[in-house]
Known about the structure:
binds adenosine-5'-triphosphate; about 35% helix; Rossmann fold; alpha/beta; about 25% strand; single chain; binds magnesium ion
Amino acid sequence: MTLLDAKSLTVKFGGVAALNALSFHVDPGEFVGVLGANGSGKSTLLDVLSGLRSSSGSVTFRGRELARVPAHARHRLGISRSYQNLELSPALSVRESLRAGSRVRGRRSVEEIARVSELFSLEDVGAERVGVLPYGVRKRVELGRAFLCQPALVLLDEPMAGLNDAEKDRVASVLREIGAEPEPPAIVLVEHDVSVVAALSSRIVAIDLGSVIAEGNPRDVIAAPAVQRAYLGV
Ligand SMILES: Nc1ncnc2c1ncn2[C@@H]1O[C@H](COP(=O)(O)OP(=O)(O)OP(=O)(O)O)[C@@H](O)[C@H]1O
Ligand SMILES: [Mg+2]
């Protein structure tokens, strides 16, 4: 059964359609890459799926219509996300930031924070204020938050933007590790680095001007003429 099914999403800003009758689905445990040029609608898509922006069309999650389900309730249902611009409070410690992002309290939360800290190599900086940490570490805190408490679907908006190659590799290997878990969450990865997206994703959806222009296995999508034209500038 499809985990998340979005049909004919349209979002307009003034005269500009950020999403134009876009349909998008994710199966349980699937790793879906989303490619698209600047302004093609990727973040708007994640905003609609996570409930931060309303849209025409429909979004169902495990068969349930989400139209009237607000963002915090979608999070409780198991839809989690990270942000393109870090949404962390600089005054909080890493551990506090993780705790604030947890959907549960008490022992579960402590265990989950420990698990995510280990996964994202944050154990040594748990007590540090987020604001004083290097950008690459803050990115990992932001990312780690999205994986707390076994979400069913994790939406990642450019988790590798601004990272150097070594930091990107590190994030990619954590994502690969998560994908290899016995029952991994489904992951939607929005990322500009084509080779990273291709290496991690089992399916890629390429969007341009708010519409899907190609979809399928990474090799075919990257080779598609419409993708070459719209995204790779060929
Ligand atoms: N709050 C807003 N108000 C007006 N226009 C917006 C708003 N948010 C997005 N847009 C416009 O909607 C379109 C899609 O934007 P979106 O941020 O979804 O693109 P994106 O694919 O995430 O781009 P990027 O790769 O730069 O992050 C763009 O034309 C953008 O200018
Ligand atoms: Mg964006």
